[in-house]
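Sequence, please.
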C-alpha cells in the first residue's frame, strides 16, 4: 500500500492505493417475534442511534481491520488502539501487510484521529522518522473512510444515521458479550446530512468521491445500544481499478481512559511524500 500526493482543483490530498502491493504480487423494517422487545431500543432504529450511544459511553478501546481487494489481489491492514468519543479523538497503531516472498515488513504506522484531520507517523517514503504527516479529512475523496487503513470508529457509527432496510439477524455472543446483529444499507450522502457537525465535512467529501453512495453494513449492538462491532463494505475506483473494501471495527472496554495529544506544528512534515 502506498500513500501518494495528488493535486486536484488546487487542493492537495492523499489517497490509499494498491499500487505497491499489486506491483509486487501481480426504509427500515424489523423482524417480528418475541425477541424483538429484548433488543436494544426494541426496534432496528437503535442502529441509527449507535453514534449517540457511543458518545454517552465516553471512550473505548478499538480494534480495526480493513480488507482491500483489486484485480485478484487481497490485502488486510489491522489496527489497535483507543478512542475518546467525547473529544472525537483516537489513537491507533496500524500494521500494514507483509511484503511477498520473505521481504521485510513495513514499520507500524501511528495514527491520530481528530475531528478535522488525520495525523500519521511512519507514513510514506521521504518522511523523517520524527515527523508526522497531517491530512485534512475534508479534502480526501473518501473522507478518510479508507485512506488511513482504518475507518474512524465514531465516523463509522455516524454513517449508520442513514441506515435503511435494517433487519434483525440474530442474537449472539461476541467475545463474551451478548449482542444483537443487524444488517442493512446506509447512504453516505444522507449520512453526511444527518451526521454530527464534526463528521459532515468528511462524509460530504466521501459522498462526492465514492462511485456509489450505498454502503451495505452489519452492526452488532449490546444491551445498552452501544456499537460493539460494525462492518462496512465500500467500493470505489482507484487508478482505473475497482477496489472493494471491507472495513471492520470492534469496540470494547468502554470507559477506559484514552489519551491523545496532537503533535505541535513544528513536528508536521511539509515536504512531498514519495511513492
Amino acid at each position: 500500500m502506498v500513500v501518494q500526493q495528488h493535486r486536484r482543483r488546487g487542493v492537495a490530498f492523499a489517497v490509499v492505493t494498491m499500487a505497491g502491493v499489486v506491483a509486487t504480487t501481480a426504509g427500515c423494517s424489523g423482524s417480528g417475534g418475541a425477541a424483538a422487545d429484548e433488543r436494544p431500543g426494541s426496534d432496528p432504529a437503535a442502529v441509527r442511534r449507535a453514534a449517540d450511544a457511543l458518545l454517552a459511553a465516553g471512550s473505548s478501546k478499538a480494534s480495526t481491520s480493513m480488507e482491500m481487494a483489486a484485480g485478484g489481489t487481497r490485502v488486510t491492514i489491522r489496527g489497535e488502539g483507543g478512542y475518546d468519543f467525547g473529544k472525537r479523538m483516537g489513537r491507533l497503531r496500524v500494521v500494514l501487510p507483509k511484503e511477498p516472498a520473505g521481504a521485510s515488513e513495513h514499520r507500524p504506522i501511528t495514527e491520530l484521529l481528530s475531528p478535522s484531520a488525520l495525523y500519521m507517523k511512519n507514513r510514506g517514503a521521504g518522511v523523517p522518522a520524527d515527523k508526522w504527516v497531517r491530512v485534512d479529512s475534508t479534502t480526501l475523496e473518501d473522507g478518510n473512510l479508507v485512506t488511513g487503513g482504518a475507518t474512524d470508529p465514531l465516523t463509522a457509527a455516524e454513517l449508520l444515521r442513514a441506515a435503511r432496510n435494517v433487519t434483525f439477524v440474530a442474537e449472539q455472543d461476541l467475545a463474551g458479550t451478548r449482542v444483537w446483529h443487524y444488517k442493512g444499507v446506509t447512504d453516505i450522502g444522507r449520512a453526511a446530512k444527518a451526521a454530527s457537525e464534526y463528521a459532515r465535512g468528511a462524509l460530504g467529501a466521501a459522498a462526492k468521491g465514492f462511485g456509489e453512495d450505498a454502503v451495505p453494513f452489519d452492526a452488532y449492538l449490546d444491551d445498552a445500544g452501544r456499537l460493539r462491532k460494525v462492518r462496512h463494505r465500500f467500493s470505489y475506483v482507484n487508478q482505473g481499478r475497482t477496489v472493494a473494501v471491507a472495513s471492520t471495527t470492534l469496540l470494547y472496554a468502554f470507559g477506559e481512559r484514552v489519551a491523545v495529544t496532537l503533535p505541535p506544528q513544528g513536528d508536521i512534515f511539509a515536504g512531498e511524500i514519495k511513492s
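The two ends are 9 Å apart (CA to CA).
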